[in-house]
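For practice. Supply one:
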Amino acid sequence: MIGTVFRSEDVPADDRFDHWREMVGRMRSPSDIISAHTTDFWAEFRLMELGPVTVWPTSFLPTRYRRSQRMVRQSDPELYHLSLLLDGELTLDHAGRSGAFGAFDLHLADSSQPYDLRPADELRPAPVRGVGVDFPKSLLPLPPHRVGELLGRGIPGREGVAALLTDFLLGLERQADTLGPADAPRLGTVVLDLVSAVLGQALDAEAALPPETRQEALARRVTAFIRQNLHDPELTPPVIAAAHHISVSYLHRVFQQHSRGETVAAWIRARRLEGAHRDLADRSLRTTPVHVIATRWGYPRASDFTRAFRTAYGVPPTEYRHESLADRGRHGNGA
């Protein structure tokens, strides 16, 4: 498991808000934390330390966070705070800008400057839910004066590279219990690469990013595109390259660098067969014809599917389905 979990119900009711305020103050830049819900406060979060990057999915009743110039002078950890809002509405006054943010918006703050982050409706007892990402400013491979252009601005979290970052952060939360401490540094690197690519794209300054960061972000866009289109039998390297405005040779080079040498075609074939393999063993799909499952995974010709499946798993798909469902029935795993 990665991360430390906090739930306010584990703390005596009278101490919950003070405990929350103390913990958030330790985790982030010191700030004044104010809420109209101190008597019935509720909050929870998971703190995931991924090397120098901290990711913390959280939910809490409406709360205001104000960091003054005096606080900046007293203590500055020199961090960037990137927040992904999932539920609720927030307003941020920061770096001379004021912006309102809703679900699936990203916003960036700099610990070296004052800010005022507050809920749109401080009295309504509806939880605010989001994911925070904190990382040292020195690790962001973009010129600080350019990053300053993004402070206090909203970045849509459902478009382009930002959508990949959103999916990755949500996936981290879902898989946290299955991940181990040894995974943390690698995951932190991925988060930082995606954040860098998101901010670079928002600035239209990807050229300022290191080549390896651009390639990592491109590889993730490509794999996400492939997964979304595995059903399409016309999904080929030329089609994928055209969709990403790159040459086929560059696609192969970037993909092999980020897939342990596996080719694009081999990766597509493996993901399709994994999906079909899983569906054939699913009792809820036992009445779905094999050829329908094959088509669903990009194999419109039954003979091509049978040949590829037998090569990968050593048995024809019909035989595998029969054996798998029979075995599940014997062990009481049936629907």
Q: What stands out?
A: The mean pLDDT is 89.
